[in-house]
User: Fold these one by one.
Assistant:
Number 1:
Amino acid sequence: QKEVEQDPGPLSVPEGAIVSLNCTYSNSAFQYFMWYRQYSRKGPELLMYTYSSGNKEDGRFTAQVDKSSKYISLFIRDSQPSDSATYLCAMSVSGSARQLTFGSGTQLTVLP
Amino acid sequence: GAGVSQSPSNKVTEKGKDVELRCDPISGHTALYWYRQSLGQGLEFLIYFQGNSAPDKSGLPSDRFSAERTGGSVSTLTIQRTQQEDSAVYLCASSSQTGGNTIYFGEGSWLTVV
């Protein structure tokens, strides 16, 4: 079993839909949780960063962490075609970038 | 530079040949990371540099893989006697300090071994 599980999709939604992307994990010591967005043939870019449990909102994006269930989510409101990308979750125990564990990514397409 | 720069962006090589992949991190970033991304897989950590030293080489998959960093800046990842299973995207990232989670990725070197 992988330490971090992520549904690879592909996920296809109409423009304006609310998108929910999820990851589950097995290591209860994870404290830092991130979402990266990766456009085709580009490197990943950090989208959201949260520490411990709770919600964090940034514009149309909301990240949720439920440590009791070992489950994290990324919600995208009013999705746009420009949101079409692969979304990778990542997490770490110590907060050190060299100890990040990544999910395999979910491919999202937002149809105009 | 403005961002992390990697070269070559694409490389097709024959099985058994050696390849060198280069990474030029963001100016002033002391930490540098190499990851590998295979189709349908997450990012696999390979090696991390702090300055010119590599305190963590735990992710290098075999002794065919090596990396060095000179002048606290440019890094080279070398794969000797390439195998087909080495085909992947090799991503380099850098950060201003090892204690932070904010790392900045390059666009990757797409390696195909035929």
Number 2:
Amino acid sequence: GAVVSQHPSRVICKSGTSVKIECRSLDFQATTMFWYRQFPKQSLMLMATSNEGSKATYEQGVEKDKFLINHASLTLSTLTVTSAHPEDSSFYICSARARIGNQPQHFGDGTRLSIL
Amino acid sequence: DQQVKQNSPSLSVQEGRISILNCDYTNSMFDYFLWYKKYPAEGPTFLISISSIKDKNEDGRFTVFLNKSAKHLSLHIVPSQPGDSAVYFCAASFSGNTGKLIFGQGTTLQVKP
């Protein structure tokens, strides 16, 4: 079946560091990828929709200068958390939807980000 | 504003019995609904979906029922197995299978041997 790979799985870094998270669709082309954030015991909240070759669409309340998204190819989207602070600590998950066919979104395994 | 709600944070069921997970939504414009299963430290895995033009979709042990008038959907798992123990999320979409997903809070299912 479809596989989405997300890397790294866990990051621990100091406040002020910028962190890049990669999301790759391994066996299908994805024109659209989605970035979610999940706080403990809460639902997945959509942060932004990443479209290949165009600017990402951010949800209300999400700072686009804080969370930089790049979707340079049909198999890769990246999320960069710039100048991360402790309040940015969370579980970040990406998903991808196949370019062809009526397929649901497939999710990566997430990245646990901890800012000290 | 929680548009998709899973009011039961947890459910415990005996192996072999039926598990029923419930989900309510507030926006009648949602036209596609999905259920995902999530194990700890992993991303959600797609289980089953249903379009708003249907009221039932079945796939093996999993059946999703949609009651549009009540804005309610449910996932039935029968027979339940210990390996089904996980967090289950329902999600809704406005634009068929292409749009962004709005997730519920999740229900933790425990199936006891």
